[in-house]
Amino acid sequence: MKQTILTLCMMLTGIFGLHAQETDIQYLSCTNWEFYCTAGMQSGKWTTIAVPGCWELQGFGKYDYGFAKDSIRGKESGLYKYAFQVPANWKGKQINIVFEGVMTDASVSINGKRAGAMHQGAFYAFKYDITHLLKSGKNLLEVKVDKQSANQSVNAAERQGDFWIFGGIFRPVYLEALPPQHIEQVVINATADGHFMAQVEAPAKVSMQLYDDRGNKIGGPVNKLDTMYKEIQTWSAEFPRLYTAEFSLHSNGKTVHVVRQKFGFRTVAVRPRDGVYVNGVKVKFKGVNRHSFTPETGRTTTREVSIEDVLLMKEMNMNAVRMSHYPPDAHFLEVCDSLGMYVIDELAGWHGHYDTPTGTKLVKEMISHDVNHPSIIFWANGNEGGHNSDLDHLFPEQDPQRRPVLHPWLLFSGIETQHYREYNYGIGNYENGREIVMPTEFLHGQFDGGHGAGLEDYWEKMWHNPLSAGGFLWDFADEGVVRHDLHDSIDTDHFRGADGIVGPHHEKEGSFYTIKEVWSPIQLDKTMHIENRYHFTNTDQCSFSYKIGADSGQIPAPHIAPGQNGELPFKLPAEGILYITAKDPYNRELFTWSFPLDKPDVAGLDTTGNIKPLIKEEDSLWVVAANGVQLAFNKTTGLLEGAPLFHGPVLQEGANNFSGFSYAYEGNRLVISSKFDRQEHYNTLEWTIFPSGIVKLHVSYFPGAYFTSFTGLNFSFPEQALLGVDYKGNGPYRVWKNRLKGGRFGTWHKDYNDTETGESWNYPEFKGYYSQMYWCKFITRTKPFTVYTTTEDVFLRLFTPAWKTDQWHNYEPIFPNGDISFMQGISAIGTKTQRNETTGPMGMKNIFYDYEKDPARALQLTLYFDFSGK
Fold it and tell me: Has the keyword Zinc been applied to this entry (predicted)?
């Protein structure tokens, strides 16, 4: 915690210059203050605490998740004291004390006198003019912070929600010294056509000088703060070009105060029944919801955390982020400005809202603090019923850009922001409705469900429908706190906080890579066809490269305009594994596609030999020996019983009606096979044992129903005997039927783990389905064995993750019987708010056609087993 605070201090001190005519800043936070907690851990005594910080994360008070209504009613307060001195050269200046964020009610005193009215509302910057309260030498700052607000509407908006709730001075505190005559506030409206307008609150004449992002002057100083600039570059998430406006206040011919403000030229417009336009281009938002959060410090974050969060979002090819469910730190918005993310900035309100007097004050604080960030393109007035409509008029009145105002979950401002609609209902709205559709929450992740699962179906409809403006996934990271009272374990409040794409420390789940591929602005298929899904970027501004074996190189970037299609000028090789990488104009990887050009085969297996396998009958078994390999087959069922894999193959969701087994030699090979009968024994099984000890299995079968959750062959194997696997196929993450994208074809090694998504974070998980298997080597506690296939599109199944459900029975991962399976159809997975079959066609069951059990229509699966231990 101390190291985090130190890092925060180092970063913050670089924000403000200390030139004579600029605002002087002195941080009071970034150090330890005296502290007294009234209830819970370490209560009833004076000690010290790091500020900024959430006191629970430093071992004080009580940990509370928002649904813990009983603990919200408890009285828990923190008393802070801090002694400070004011620089001597600040004499004659106005001195304000600024709090960037305090949870929740804050009463501030200087030298025993109140600085002003108690502030209510956790996520908003506020200040007091304390010039008249200060004295020379040491001054004493005292702050009383009540975790629960005396205003019940504040509790309803901020604390009775689906997220962790904390107490404390959790954002920076500083003094600012201003000359007697100073610029109070600057509000900028700079549009894509180069029109610059600024509203400046100042007592006298102000001039302005414009600078580009390299510090070069654009023109000369202007006295008119409503002017046009030619040949400016616009700001967008793809090209986040920033400018700096330097405002100078003049008095008696001298410059007495200078304020610098970064901004971007850009225009946001909602065209009813059409779409959302940025700089005149219709945009679709690939967004995610994000809490301000780290496991060790709670809501206290650093610029470094903000950069890491935004870079991870951009790595997933996202272009938008929604603040949930409160305004973020200033540095997060600065990072979104500089790296390029569209932002929904949200007034707090989960399912409750502020009363009108309180909300009026907090809307003003939020807008005055955040208004100049070009990344903000929407304001949100609360969330999911936490809307006070009496506040709506304040947003356009205080924001000269008149950014659209949303009521997330509702139809408002011409935008339907419906949450968690089923695929058919939602797509019905897209295709048959008249309003712009932009769900501010969809595919609510829970453990391994949602996020990537179902996204491809949703996104293809969203992308191609002109009324869709995209949407925002819930949510970015698992909200897990380090519990000092529970041996520093990470607590996600069971399933409630485990709904992120990444873990508490940004561990990447499989959905991370699915989102990366589905939302890549460059779409590439195996024919080298390209679709450019950028809004402002031509493909010739990107770069492309290939790798196949030891050969690699660059591919000329084609000229394909945004929204257009074309071809990548690359001739496919005849064989091998081809990797194509696309990078954006900033040399960041968009995605690397892998294309196996060879079919699965067993060309390297030894199926020769002159010594025939031996077979003998022992009770119900045929016992077979070949080149040191011992096997046993059930004479009635044909199942393998005596081998590392046993009691298989058992058909899943099909009739295990193999019957009429006999054996015969074909040359030096031993063949054990069943008989085909269209009425009762239409599924057939054949084993071939080669002199080398290699075993071939061929199954011809019909699924048991028209719709099946999964289809394939199961075997038994003791889980405790497996140490890991090497395999050739897509990896290293597991897949679901409705989350197949994001993997990379190759050869992978995976050590066994028992990771449960969202409960432990040793990713990638081991148990589950793996697609496009060519072979798999099972590394056991005795000797290894390897399974190969010559059948395309086989899924490897490794054991069964823990079965979980919820009160709605939406998230229920189901798996076949047995332990190790080779599947030709696998199950999908649901989300917290939807069953798997309502997330789209990929989430539905597998469909097979078995007309009159015609053998030509049967599914075919061929496997080869090497039990030699090599």
Answer: no
